[in-house]
Amino acid sequence: MRGVLGKSRKMICSLLSQAPVSPAYYYRSSPSIYKPKPSNRFSWGFLAPIPSPAIRVFCSKPGEVGGLMASSVQNQGSISYLTQREAAEVDETLMGPLGFSVDQLMELAGLSVATSINEVYKPSEYNRVLAICGPGNNGGDGLVAARHLYHFGYKPFVCYPKRTQKPLYSGLVTQLESLSIPFLSVDELPMDLSKDFDILVDAMFGFSFHGAPRPPFDDLIKKLINLHYYEQAQRKPPVIVSVDIPSGWHVEEGDVGGDGIKPDMLVSLTAPKLCAKKFSGPHHFLGGRFVPPAIAEKYKLQLPQYPGISMCVRIGKPPQIDISSLRENYISPEFLEEQVEADPLDQFRKWFDDAMAANLKEPNAMALSTTGKDGKPSSRMVLLKGVDKDGFVWFTNYESQKARQLSENPHAALLFYWDGLNRQVRVEGSVEKVSDEESEQYFHSRPRGSQLGAIVSKQSTVVPGRHVLHQQYKELEEKYSKESLIPKPKYWGGYRLKPERFEFWQGQPSRLHDRLEYSPQETDGKRVWKIVRLAP
Ligand SMILES: NC(=O)C1=CN([C@@H]2O[C@H](COP(=O)(O)OP(=O)(O)OC[C@H]3O[C@@H](n4cnc5c(N)ncnc54)[C@H](OP(=O)(O)O)[C@@H]3O)[C@@H](O)[C@H]2O)[C@@H](O)CC1
Ligand SMILES: Cc1cc2nc3c(=O)[nH]c(=O)nc-3n(C[C@H](O)[C@H](O)[C@H](O)COP(=O)(O)O)c2cc1C
Ligand SMILES: Cc1ncc(COP(=O)(O)O)c(C=O)c1O
Ligand SMILES: [K+]
């Protein structure tokens, strides 16, 4: 075993040293804490979309206990759980009348497992994965997951002691072998799994498990149970991710003796099985985004909505979070003086283009900070609607709080934060209103609804209730039927900030970030931008 893993460690190092230094190598390592984020975020490198905590749940047979019943998951309303028989029936229906093949479902199931893992355990911190695969389809899910994890940047190992002699399985094995993923026999596994692996994928048994585990799985399950004996204060223990069912648990009753595997993450597939109600670990996900409405109806399956294009969705309560431990270690290409543009506007455009290319959500969203004559600052988000040599433009209500403050103190600060690129840009300067024509032109380019909204909203004043806004909006909708021009209210228009200072921030490990500041300087009567590096 030593030899095998020793070799593999070298492989990890060589893999890391070959890692591209292209923009595709921005990532952040964070603790295994779930952070709800918008679902449709794309991030470069190893970051994957994270599901929205909002889930839609239904009750099939409210209050019923057992079978396809509704059962409460904290914070999340209700969700159905399947009995063992129902799980098998759903499986048969999918692969019978509904025309799915086992290969397809297994591929999607394994992908769901891999993406669920990636939601919580980033490869920068949890790199070495051991997938322990059983003889059935649950084992197949594990093999598929291992392949996807490899492509996500993890370093998988596979233990697959009872191989199934079917083309599907031998194909999966060949695919893994072609990626040089090491297969470890049971004998090659160390007694203590905690030293060599960060993630243990339990893909031994799924919903067809019955009785007591037979060799060699009895010992493998014991290895997972005994992990805590080896826990050392200075070492983070590996996490256990169970696929569909924690292996050894009764499919309906759960961990009957209380001495079974205690997974940190459970990825239920298609729908959670009854035993999942007994799962008390911090991360419960659902995967298997393939259930057609026909089957959901037939089995009165109540499934949460998957966010965006995600292959998995968190179910169950979000984990308790120790806020003080929430942190990211930023890993990005260095941002050096010799690389930056002489003109900060060019540099801004470059980074803005990167943010667009990375498909970040609203890269033009910026925090605008202002102060009035009392000197008390306030910040809010606004959308950048134009940027050129004259400055940064946004639109708003000229009678809002920010407008009042800007009339008292025409200086402001803008802040862009581009999560996923580990970048922040600060822009400070003086502010003036844009011309009326510019505001007119932009106003009429907006969707009609937003134009009406701008008329309705006496921004920053007290509103007695939402209904008031709706009522006024409806009246305006009738007043300005289909094609008629909606006049821009006088109290709505743009501002332009003329930059006097820029700072470009690129997150780096150990908080040794890059900060390059631009400030204007007169040289021979010419205005040039001076660039200095600031301590992080
Ligand atoms: N639509 C879906 O739902 C989808 C389901 N999918 C996945 O399929 C899983 C169900 O797969 P599955 O039916 O092949 O059964 P699974 O649990 O892997 O194991 C059966 C094997 O274990 C063995 N075995 C049983 N008991 C044992 C014991 N005590 N000790 C030792 N061995 C024991 C048994 O041997 P036997 O007892 O028959 O001799 C047989 O070889 C499901 O949980 C999910 O992960 C996804 O891929 C796609 C979509
Ligand atoms: C992403 C985002 C973009 C926003 N963009 C604008 C905007 O461009 N103009 C605007 O007036 N308000 C915008 N808002 C609303 C403002 O944040 C704020 O609530 C509103 O302008 C009132 O601010 P004030 O009371 O400080 O004047 C945006 C809010 C968010 C979250
Ligand atoms: C109140 C308000 N005004 C203006 C905007 C600017 O965006 P747009 O002009 O695209 O509606 C926003 C954007 O969120 C907003 O919330
Ligand atoms: K399992």
UniProtKB/TrEMBL annotation:
Keywords: Flavoprotein, FMN, Isomerase, Metal-binding, NAD, Nucleotide-binding, Oxidoreductase, Potassium, Pyridoxine biosynthesis. Its cofactor is K(+); FMN. This is NAD(P)H-hydrate epimerase. It is an enzyme of class 5 (isomerase). The lineage of its organism: Eukaryota, Viridiplantae, Streptophyta, Embryophyta, Tracheophyta. (6S)-NADPHX binds at residues 137-141, 206-212, 244. It comes from the Eukaryota. K(+) binds at residues 138, 202, 247.
